[in-house]
Amino acid sequence: MTEADAVISAAPPASRRPRLSLAWVGIVPFVVFALLFLVLPTLQIVTGAFRNTSGGFTLDNIANLFTPSIMAAYWISIRISVASAFLGCLIGFLLAWAMVLGGLPKGVRSPLLTFSGVASNFAGVPLAFAFLATFGRLGLVTLILRDWFGINIYAYGFNILSFGGLTLTYLFFQIPLMILIVTPALDGMRREWREAASILGATGFQYWRMVALPILWPTLLGTFALLFANSFGAVATAYALTGSSLSIVPILLFAQIRGDVLQDPHLGYALAFGMIVITGIANFVYIWLRTRSERWIK
Question: What is the membrane topology noted in the UniProt record heading this document (predicted)?
Protein backbone atom coordinates (compact mmCIF):
# COMPACT_ATOMS: atom_id res chain seq x y z
CA MET A 1 0.00 0.00 0.00
CA THR A 2 1.39 3.38 -0.98
CA GLU A 3 1.43 6.38 1.28
CA ALA A 4 -1.38 7.98 -0.74
CA ASP A 5 -3.55 4.90 -0.30
CA ALA A 6 -2.83 4.91 3.44
CA VAL A 7 -3.86 8.54 3.71
CA ILE A 8 -7.09 7.90 1.80
CA SER A 9 -7.96 4.85 3.93
CA ALA A 10 -7.25 6.73 7.17
CA ALA A 11 -9.37 9.70 6.17
CA PRO A 12 -12.80 9.81 7.88
CA PRO A 13 -15.72 8.86 5.65
CA ALA A 14 -17.62 11.70 4.10
CA SER A 15 -20.53 12.78 6.29
CA ARG A 16 -23.88 11.78 4.93
CA ARG A 17 -26.98 13.80 5.46
CA PRO A 18 -29.62 11.88 7.41
CA ARG A 19 -32.54 10.97 5.23
CA LEU A 20 -36.02 11.78 6.45
CA SER A 21 -38.05 8.61 6.37
CA LEU A 22 -41.29 8.80 4.41
CA ALA A 23 -42.94 6.87 7.22
CA TRP A 24 -43.15 10.14 9.17
CA VAL A 25 -45.45 11.52 6.50
CA GLY A 26 -48.15 9.11 7.65
CA ILE A 27 -48.48 10.76 11.05
CA VAL A 28 -48.78 14.29 9.68
CA PRO A 29 -52.62 14.20 9.56
CA PHE A 30 -52.71 12.94 13.15
CA VAL A 31 -50.32 15.64 14.35
CA VAL A 32 -52.31 18.35 12.58
CA PHE A 33 -55.57 17.00 13.97
CA ALA A 34 -54.16 16.81 17.51
CA LEU A 35 -52.82 20.35 17.31
CA LEU A 36 -56.04 21.84 15.96
CA PHE A 37 -58.55 20.00 18.14
CA LEU A 38 -56.60 19.06 21.28
CA VAL A 39 -53.41 21.00 21.96
CA LEU A 40 -54.40 24.48 20.80
CA PRO A 41 -57.90 24.43 22.38
CA THR A 42 -56.39 23.20 25.65
CA LEU A 43 -53.84 26.03 25.62
CA GLN A 44 -56.64 28.49 24.86
CA ILE A 45 -58.63 27.19 27.84
CA VAL A 46 -55.66 27.31 30.22
CA THR A 47 -54.62 30.82 29.23
CA GLY A 48 -58.22 32.05 29.17
CA ALA A 49 -58.79 30.84 32.72
CA PHE A 50 -56.16 33.31 33.95
CA ARG A 51 -57.29 36.33 31.94
CA ASN A 52 -59.95 38.95 32.49
CA THR A 53 -62.16 40.63 29.90
CA SER A 54 -59.44 43.15 29.07
CA GLY A 55 -56.85 40.42 28.50
CA GLY A 56 -54.84 40.98 31.67
CA PHE A 57 -53.67 38.33 34.10
CA THR A 58 -56.02 37.54 36.98
CA LEU A 59 -56.79 34.83 39.52
CA ASP A 60 -60.41 35.91 40.00
CA ASN A 61 -61.71 33.25 37.62
CA ILE A 62 -60.01 30.50 39.62
CA ALA A 63 -61.23 32.03 42.88
CA ASN A 64 -64.81 32.06 41.54
CA LEU A 65 -64.66 28.29 41.20
CA PHE A 66 -64.94 28.06 44.98
CA THR A 67 -68.31 29.79 45.15
CA PRO A 68 -71.08 27.58 46.64
CA SER A 69 -73.04 27.13 43.40
CA ILE A 70 -70.01 26.05 41.37
CA MET A 71 -68.69 23.81 44.12
CA ALA A 72 -72.14 22.17 44.31
CA ALA A 73 -72.02 21.57 40.54
CA TYR A 74 -68.59 19.96 40.84
CA TRP A 75 -69.80 17.81 43.73
CA ILE A 76 -72.84 16.55 41.78
CA SER A 77 -70.64 15.78 38.77
CA ILE A 78 -68.16 13.89 40.95
CA ARG A 79 -70.97 11.88 42.60
CA ILE A 80 -72.48 10.94 39.23
CA SER A 81 -69.07 10.00 37.86
CA VAL A 82 -68.20 7.87 40.92
CA ALA A 83 -71.59 6.11 40.89
CA SER A 84 -71.55 5.36 37.15
CA ALA A 85 -67.88 4.30 37.27
CA PHE A 86 -68.43 1.97 40.23
CA LEU A 87 -71.56 0.34 38.81
CA GLY A 88 -69.98 0.17 35.36
CA CYS A 89 -66.90 -1.58 36.77
CA LEU A 90 -68.97 -4.00 38.85
CA ILE A 91 -71.47 -5.01 36.18
CA GLY A 92 -68.91 -4.95 33.37
CA PHE A 93 -66.49 -7.12 35.33
CA LEU A 94 -69.18 -9.69 36.09
CA LEU A 95 -70.19 -9.85 32.42
CA ALA A 96 -66.57 -10.14 31.26
CA TRP A 97 -65.86 -12.82 33.88
CA ALA A 98 -68.92 -14.82 32.79
CA MET A 99 -67.80 -14.54 29.16
CA VAL A 100 -64.12 -15.44 29.69
CA LEU A 101 -64.00 -17.67 32.77
CA GLY A 102 -67.61 -18.36 33.66
CA GLY A 103 -68.33 -21.05 31.12
CA LEU A 104 -70.64 -19.14 28.77
CA PRO A 105 -70.84 -20.51 25.22
CA LYS A 106 -68.03 -19.31 22.98
CA GLY A 107 -70.56 -17.91 20.54
CA VAL A 108 -71.50 -15.23 23.08
CA ARG A 109 -68.06 -13.61 23.10
CA SER A 110 -68.01 -12.17 19.60
CA PRO A 111 -71.50 -10.57 19.69
CA LEU A 112 -70.90 -9.18 23.19
CA LEU A 113 -67.57 -7.61 22.27
CA THR A 114 -69.02 -6.23 19.04
CA PHE A 115 -71.92 -4.67 20.89
CA SER A 116 -69.55 -3.30 23.53
CA GLY A 117 -67.42 -1.65 20.87
CA VAL A 118 -70.48 0.09 19.42
CA ALA A 119 -72.23 0.95 22.70
CA SER A 120 -69.09 2.38 24.32
CA ASN A 121 -69.12 5.13 21.67
CA PHE A 122 -72.89 5.66 21.64
CA ALA A 123 -73.67 8.91 23.45
CA GLY A 124 -75.06 12.38 22.97
CA VAL A 125 -78.53 13.23 21.70
CA PRO A 126 -79.31 9.73 20.31
CA LEU A 127 -78.57 8.10 23.66
CA ALA A 128 -80.62 10.70 25.55
CA PHE A 129 -83.56 10.20 23.19
CA ALA A 130 -83.31 6.42 23.51
CA PHE A 131 -83.53 6.58 27.30
CA LEU A 132 -86.37 9.10 27.23
CA ALA A 133 -88.27 6.79 24.88
CA THR A 134 -87.54 3.86 27.21
CA PHE A 135 -87.69 5.23 30.76
CA GLY A 136 -89.49 8.54 30.29
CA ARG A 137 -92.95 9.15 31.74
CA LEU A 138 -94.43 7.72 28.54
CA GLY A 139 -91.50 5.44 27.77
CA LEU A 140 -91.88 1.85 26.69
CA VAL A 141 -90.57 0.22 29.87
CA THR A 142 -92.46 2.71 32.05
CA LEU A 143 -95.78 1.89 30.36
CA ILE A 144 -95.15 -1.86 30.42
CA LEU A 145 -94.40 -1.82 34.13
CA ARG A 146 -97.43 0.38 34.82
CA ASP A 147 -100.02 -1.33 32.60
CA TRP A 148 -98.92 -4.97 32.87
CA PHE A 149 -97.53 -5.21 36.39
CA GLY A 150 -99.12 -2.24 38.14
CA ILE A 151 -95.74 -0.70 39.01
CA ASN A 152 -95.41 3.05 38.52
CA ILE A 153 -91.71 3.74 38.85
CA TYR A 154 -92.30 7.50 38.92
CA ALA A 155 -94.59 7.08 41.91
CA TYR A 156 -91.65 5.48 43.74
CA GLY A 157 -89.45 8.51 43.11
CA PHE A 158 -87.68 7.55 39.88
CA ASN A 159 -87.05 10.36 37.42
CA ILE A 160 -85.00 10.06 34.26
CA LEU A 161 -84.15 13.79 34.58
CA SER A 162 -82.44 13.32 37.93
CA PHE A 163 -79.22 12.08 39.49
CA GLY A 164 -80.31 8.44 39.25
CA GLY A 165 -81.63 8.81 35.72
CA LEU A 166 -78.42 10.36 34.42
CA THR A 167 -76.34 7.71 36.19
CA LEU A 168 -78.48 4.99 34.60
CA THR A 169 -78.00 6.58 31.18
CA TYR A 170 -74.23 6.77 31.60
CA LEU A 171 -74.14 3.04 32.39
CA PHE A 172 -75.08 2.35 28.77
CA PHE A 173 -71.57 3.28 27.64
CA GLN A 174 -69.72 2.69 30.91
CA ILE A 175 -70.46 -1.05 31.13
CA PRO A 176 -69.36 -1.84 27.54
CA LEU A 177 -66.16 0.19 28.02
CA MET A 178 -65.38 -1.83 31.15
CA ILE A 179 -65.94 -5.07 29.24
CA LEU A 180 -63.56 -4.03 26.47
CA ILE A 181 -60.80 -3.07 28.92
CA VAL A 182 -61.02 -5.91 31.43
CA THR A 183 -61.47 -8.76 28.92
CA PRO A 184 -57.79 -8.81 27.85
CA ALA A 185 -56.77 -8.82 31.53
CA LEU A 186 -58.99 -11.82 32.21
CA ASP A 187 -57.61 -13.54 29.10
CA GLY A 188 -54.13 -13.04 30.55
CA MET A 189 -54.97 -14.98 33.72
CA ARG A 190 -52.95 -18.17 33.31
CA ARG A 191 -54.51 -21.53 34.03
CA GLU A 192 -51.32 -22.61 35.79
CA TRP A 193 -52.01 -20.11 38.59
CA ARG A 194 -55.39 -21.66 39.32
CA GLU A 195 -53.97 -25.19 39.14
CA ALA A 196 -51.08 -24.30 41.46
CA ALA A 197 -53.49 -22.78 43.97
CA SER A 198 -55.69 -25.90 43.84
CA ILE A 199 -52.69 -28.19 44.36
CA LEU A 200 -51.74 -26.18 47.44
CA GLY A 201 -55.25 -26.65 48.80
CA ALA A 202 -56.73 -23.21 48.08
CA THR A 203 -60.46 -22.92 47.53
CA GLY A 204 -61.96 -20.90 44.71
CA PHE A 205 -62.64 -18.00 47.05
CA GLN A 206 -59.08 -18.09 48.38
CA TYR A 207 -57.69 -18.16 44.82
CA TRP A 208 -59.64 -15.04 43.87
CA ARG A 209 -58.85 -13.26 47.14
CA MET A 210 -55.13 -14.07 47.31
CA VAL A 211 -54.09 -14.53 43.66
CA ALA A 212 -56.51 -13.29 41.01
CA LEU A 213 -57.78 -10.06 42.55
CA PRO A 214 -54.31 -8.80 43.59
CA ILE A 215 -53.20 -9.28 39.99
CA LEU A 216 -56.34 -7.69 38.53
CA TRP A 217 -56.53 -4.93 41.13
CA PRO A 218 -54.40 -2.38 39.20
CA THR A 219 -56.54 -2.99 36.11
CA LEU A 220 -59.76 -2.58 38.06
CA LEU A 221 -58.64 0.59 39.77
CA GLY A 222 -57.23 2.00 36.54
CA THR A 223 -60.43 1.26 34.67
CA PHE A 224 -62.44 2.88 37.46
CA ALA A 225 -60.35 6.03 37.02
CA LEU A 226 -60.88 5.93 33.25
CA LEU A 227 -64.65 5.46 33.61
CA PHE A 228 -64.71 8.33 36.10
CA ALA A 229 -62.99 10.63 33.60
CA ASN A 230 -65.23 9.37 30.80
CA SER A 231 -68.36 10.22 32.78
CA PHE A 232 -67.06 13.49 34.22
CA GLY A 233 -66.36 14.94 30.79
CA ALA A 234 -69.63 13.86 29.14
CA VAL A 235 -71.66 16.91 28.18
CA ALA A 236 -73.84 16.15 25.15
CA THR A 237 -75.77 13.32 26.80
CA ALA A 238 -76.35 15.23 30.04
CA TYR A 239 -77.45 18.42 28.27
CA ALA A 240 -79.74 16.60 25.84
CA LEU A 241 -81.30 14.53 28.61
CA THR A 242 -81.69 16.95 31.52
CA GLY A 243 -81.20 20.38 29.97
CA SER A 244 -80.71 22.85 32.80
CA SER A 245 -82.72 20.85 35.37
CA LEU A 246 -79.56 19.24 36.78
CA SER A 247 -76.69 21.58 37.59
CA ILE A 248 -73.53 19.67 36.73
CA VAL A 249 -70.25 21.17 35.58
CA PRO A 250 -70.57 20.49 31.81
CA ILE A 251 -74.03 22.09 31.72
CA LEU A 252 -72.86 25.04 33.84
CA LEU A 253 -69.87 25.42 31.52
CA PHE A 254 -72.15 25.50 28.48
CA ALA A 255 -74.31 28.16 30.16
CA GLN A 256 -71.30 30.37 30.93
CA ILE A 257 -69.94 30.24 27.38
CA ARG A 258 -73.14 30.28 25.31
CA GLY A 259 -75.81 31.64 27.68
CA ASP A 260 -77.40 35.06 27.25
CA VAL A 261 -77.74 35.84 30.96
CA LEU A 262 -74.84 34.01 32.58
CA GLN A 263 -72.37 34.59 29.77
CA ASP A 264 -68.85 34.82 31.16
CA PRO A 265 -66.40 33.09 28.80
CA HIS A 266 -63.43 33.43 31.15
CA LEU A 267 -65.33 31.82 34.02
CA GLY A 268 -66.23 29.11 31.52
CA TYR A 269 -62.54 28.69 30.76
CA ALA A 270 -61.89 28.32 34.48
CA LEU A 271 -64.63 25.67 34.75
CA ALA A 272 -63.10 23.81 31.81
CA PHE A 273 -59.64 24.16 33.38
CA GLY A 274 -60.94 22.52 36.56
CA MET A 275 -62.41 19.68 34.50
CA ILE A 276 -59.10 19.23 32.70
CA VAL A 277 -57.26 18.98 36.02
CA ILE A 278 -59.69 16.39 37.44
CA THR A 279 -59.87 14.25 34.29
CA GLY A 280 -56.10 14.58 33.81
CA ILE A 281 -55.46 13.18 37.27
CA ALA A 282 -57.91 10.34 36.62
CA ASN A 283 -56.27 9.47 33.30
CA PHE A 284 -52.80 9.61 34.85
CA VAL A 285 -53.91 7.16 37.54
CA TYR A 286 -55.36 4.90 34.83
CA ILE A 287 -52.16 4.89 32.75
CA TRP A 288 -49.95 4.27 35.79
CA LEU A 289 -52.08 1.40 37.10
CA ARG A 290 -52.50 -0.03 33.61
CA THR A 291 -48.71 -0.20 33.26
CA ARG A 292 -48.42 -2.06 36.56
CA SER A 293 -51.10 -4.58 35.55
CA GLU A 294 -49.41 -5.27 32.21
CA ARG A 295 -46.20 -6.20 34.04
CA TRP A 296 -48.10 -8.84 36.03
CA ILE A 297 -49.80 -10.28 32.96
CA LYS A 298 -46.49 -10.55 31.08
Answer: Multi-pass membrane protein
